[in-house]
């Protein structure tokens, strides 16, 4: 399954309705609730506006869903702390969410930020 930038923007809006205000997640650091996750999404889309996500695999067990994914995008903004390079990049990652009573109560994301920064020519990961 492939998802483009507009779908990710809609997902962010959906998270505001479906994620528990007390939900725990991470985006480089632990965040609580959808409003704490929003700045991370805005930073990523500000730097990489043509974000395309492909879900490579999913596994569901009980109240958890795990997904292995690949993202392709072009670095067009300076929101990662370095000037736009125009480079196309590809990263991979995995996400797990736990749902209770129709709301996301926990989520974990693990993705290759070092590969992203190396592809952009940076020598260290950007602050998230």
Low-confidence stretches: none
Q: Please give the alpha-carbon distance between the first and last residues.
A: 27 Å
* CATH topology label: Nuclear Transport Factor 2, Chain: A
Biggest sheet, spatial arrangement of strands: 1-4-5-6-7-2-3
What is the helix fraction of residues, given as a range? 25-40%
pLDDT averaged residue by residue: 78
Relative strand content = 35-45%
- Order of SSEs, N→C? EHEEHEEEEH
Q: Structural class of the helix and strand makeup?
A: alpha+beta
Report the total helices: 3
Strand tally: 7
* Overall geometric form: globular
Q: Please tell me how large the radius of gyration is.
A: 15 Å
Structurally, how many domains make up the residues? 1
Largest sheet: 7 strands, mixed
Quick overview:
With 128 residues, the protein is of the alpha+beta class. Helices cover 27% and strands 44% of the residues.
Describe this structure in words.
- With 128 residues, the protein is of the alpha+beta class.
- It contains three helices and seven strands.
- The protein has a single domain, classed as Nuclear Transport Factor 2, Chain: A (Roll).
- A seven-stranded mixed β-sheet has the order 1-4-5-6-7-2-3.
- The two termini are 27 Å apart.
Question: What characteristics describe this protein?
Answer:
3 helices, Nuclear Transport Factor 2, Chain: A, alpha+beta, 128 residues, 44% strand, globular, seven-stranded mixed sheet
Q: What is the topology?
A:
Blueprint: E1 2-3, H1 5-18, E2 19-26, E3 30-32, H2 34-47, E4 52-61, E5 64-74, E6 88-100, E7 103-111, H3 113-119
Helix pairs in contact: 1-2
């Amino acid at each position: 399954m492939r998802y483009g930038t507009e779908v990710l923007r809609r997902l962010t809006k959906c998270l505001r309705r479906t994620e528990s205000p007390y939900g725990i997640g991470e985006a480089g650091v632990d965040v609580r609730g959808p409003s704490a996750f929003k700045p991370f999404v805005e930073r990523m889309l500000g730097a990489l506006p043509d974000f395309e996500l492909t879900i490579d695999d999913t596994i569901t067990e009980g109240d958890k869903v795990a997904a292995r994914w690949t993202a392709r995008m072009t670095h067009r903004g300076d929101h990662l702390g370095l000037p736009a390079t125009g480079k196309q990049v590809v990263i991979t990652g995995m996400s797990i969410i736990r749902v209770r009573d129709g709301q996301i109560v926990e989520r974990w994301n693990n993705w290759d930020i070092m590969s992203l920064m190396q592809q952009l020519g940076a020598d260290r990961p950007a602050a998230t």
